[in-house]
Amino acid sequence: MKQLLSATLDGINAKKVEVEAAFTKGLPAFGIVGLASSSIQEAKERVKAALLTNGFSFPPLRITVSMSPSDLLKTGSHMDLAIALVIALQNENIDLEDFYVFGELGLDGRLKDTRSIFPILLSLRNQKLITKAIVPTESLEKLSMIPGITYIGVENLFEAIAVCKKEQPPREIEATPIDGETIEVGEVNYFFIKDYPEDFLDVKGQEIAKRASLIAASGMHNMLMEGSPGCGKSMIAKRLQHILPPMSLEEILQANQYALLGNEEPIFEPKRPQRSPHHSASKPSIFGGGSHHAKIGEVALANSGILFFDEFPHFSKTVLEALREPLQDYKVLISRVNSKIAYDTKFMFIAAQNPCPCGNLLSSIHTCRCSDLEIKRYKQRLSDPLLDRIDIYVQMQESSSEDKPSISSSSMHKEVIKAFIQQMKRGQKHLNGKLDEKEIEKYCILDNEAEQVLYKAVNSFGLSHRSVANVKKVSRTIADLEESKEIEKRHILEALSFRRRS
């Protein structure tokens, strides 16, 4: 046997690793070379115990296991099986060049799943480097979500050796179906769940905020809610997650890949993530970091879902200003001496804030206790470039005893799905809120009256180039909710009504 293929994570991408072994004359020893981390060096003891338990006798020779490329740092216990197989099958004439091998070994030879196997296989599949893999049986349930790979599940080392020698037929597995509802648009399946544990029927009044929430969810637009304490800002933010657009299989897989990289259990449901870091959270915890290796942060874990900042102005200035890059470029780059990693950040940003430090500036009942200087300082914590990246601004209404529920999450979700279908039928790769400049020119077509209204708004309000783009994207979503091909005057006017006034 010449070599086996395995892989290691380099940031969020997997890199192929070739594992081979040599038996040479000399004092009996067992060594691993090729820039292997301590977790792989520890594999020697697990591999020894597993091989001896399964009837393998070590020859009185020096055993050297090499992992190439030698300049790539290899980490993870998932390489145990590959190391054990190249030793156990050294004298066998077996060709496994098309197979990748993964699995952690117990001392008795039992194979175990590891958190890194799923993100590695997903990355290899996206790079079109893999078609077949030998994996632990207990990994099959989640790995079967990744299409395009033939899996051979094995319980232990003895069974893996038997499969390699073709003494035992491999287990056949079927792809695991996604739970929930399915719609097909342009030969692509999208998935969603009709489950509303927190319903918009619980939100009484706030009709403008509900309308803004529907528009924001339909196009994944960034939204800022400002209002007195207890008016329903957090209630609305929590309910938005359940009415978001359907997800493609790729989005579901990537969300679970990021969850595993964040040491969280994957949930293979078409449910977009929601992250709500506290305002005291550190910059590395939100954006990712680490002293040696770049670790994933909240903005990446929120990718394809919602990032919610409650008490928006109370976040540190460094966090607020650093937020501008992922909101604009939809990526965050973490640079360290040993690694540089870019994470996708196509999340829907939702923020909530009080109008002043005491929260009563807009109240007609309670008296504001803040001085003009305190209010000014509070407002100045949010810079104009940051606020310019928020598409929809809502000033919440004060709560009243006459407020009543008006619309359910189920009804809102139907409207969101209708708008989603309109966007996908146009051939968009991204939802309206995440369109780039070229896509805005292609998909956000205004009729003559709408063009004139927007032109007047630019001159009257001094809208920046980014603000104009945001208005077009929001009006495009409003038009999609009405199933209108072109953006009309009323769509532009409603989009302008959600612009923040300086």
Overview of the structural elements:
The protein is an alpha/beta fold and 502 residues long. It folds into 3 domains: 4-164, Ribosomal Protein S5, domain 2 (2-Layer Sandwich), CATH 3.30.230; 185-406, P-loop containing nucleotide triphosphate hydrolases (Rossmann fold), CATH 3.40.50; 435-502, Helicase, Ruva Protein, domain 3, CATH 1.10.8. Helices cover 35% and strands 18% of the residues. It has 20 helices and 19 strands. It has helices spanning 38-41, 43-53, 80-88, 117-126, 140-143, 157-164, 207-219, 233-240, 249-261, 283-287, 298-301, 317-322, 324-329, 372-380, 384-387, 409-425, 437-443, 448-461, 465-481, 489-497, and strands at 4-10, 13-24, 29-33, 62-68, 99-101, 104-105, 111-112, 132-136, 150-154, 181-185, 188-192, 223-226, 247-248, 274-275, 306-309, 331-335, 340-344, 348-353, 392-395. Strand 16 and strand 17 form a beta hairpin. It is elongated and about 90 Å long. The termini are far apart. The model has no long low-confidence stretch (mean pLDDT 91). InterPro entries: CHLI-like (IPR045006), Mg_chelat-rel (IPR004482), Mg_chelat-rel_C (IPR025158), Mg_chelatse_chII-like_cat_dom (IPR000523), P-loop_NTPase (IPR027417), Ribosomal_Su5_D2-typ_SF (IPR020568), Ribsml_uS5_D2-typ_fold_subgr (IPR014721). It holds the Pfam family ChlI. Residues 408-499 form the Mg chelatase-related protein C-terminal domain.
